[in-house]
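Handoff note, outgoing to incoming analyst
You'll be picking up this chain. Sequence as last confirmed:
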Amino acid sequence: MTESVILPTRRDEAWRYSDTDAIAGIDLGRFEHWEDVDVPAGETLRRCVIIADADGPNDATELRRLRVRVGDGARCELFVVVSSGRLGRVEVVALLGDGAHLELGGVTIGGRDTTREIVSRVAHEKPNGTSNQVVRAVHWGRGTGNFLGRIDVVSGAQKTDAAQSFRGLILERGASVNAVPQLEIFADDVKCAHGATVGQLDEQARFYMAARGLPPEVARRLLVQAFVADAFVALDNENERERLMRVVLDKLDRHL
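Most recent structure output, in case you need it:
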C-alpha cells in the first residue's frame, strides 16, 4: 500500500485561488514529483519552462515543480509561460547561497474556465544574495491568473536585495487575477520590495492607435505584447525571447 498523500485544500495558502478540483483525479506520484536543479558555485544556468497546448488537452492539469539550489556566487535564470490546461501551474522553490542571484520572469495567459498560475518561494539563506521576480498575467473569459510569491530572508543573510513585480491585465469582464506577495525578513540590513497592480488595457493608447488606422485586434495585440515583454527583459538570448513571446501571442491570437 502506497503512503497516503494529503492533497491541498482551499484552506492552504499556496492553493488559495487555485482550482483544487482539477487536481483531484491526477496521479498522486505525478503530484508529488519535483525536479531538482543545482547550480554549482560560480556558474550560470538559464532555463525556459513552458506549459502550452502542445503539452496536452486544454482541459488537462499540468503541474511543473522545480526545487532550485543556487550555489555561492552562482546565477539562475528561469523564464516561464503558462498558457494551457484547465489548471496550469509552475512552482519554484529556490535556495540561494552567498552572493547568488535568481532571476524569475513569468507570464500566465488564458481564457475560458481555466486557472493558470506561478507560485514561488525564494529563500535567501546567506548574505549578499539577490533575486528579481517579474510576473505578468493576461486573462479573459472566465480565466483566472494567479501569482503567489514568497521571499524569506533568514537571520544573518545581510545585504540581501530582493524584488517582486506583478502586473495583471484583464481583457474581458468575468476574468480574474490574484496576487499574494509575502515577505518574511529576519535580517536588518536588506532591501526587499514588491508591487502588484491589476487593470485593463490603456484606452488612450487604443484610441491613439485607432486614430492612426490600426485595426482593434492589431492594437490589442501590440499592447499585450508590450505589457508582457517586461517578464523577458532579462533574457539576453533573442531566439529564446522570441520563442516565449510567440507562445504568448499564439494564445492571444486564437482569442482575438
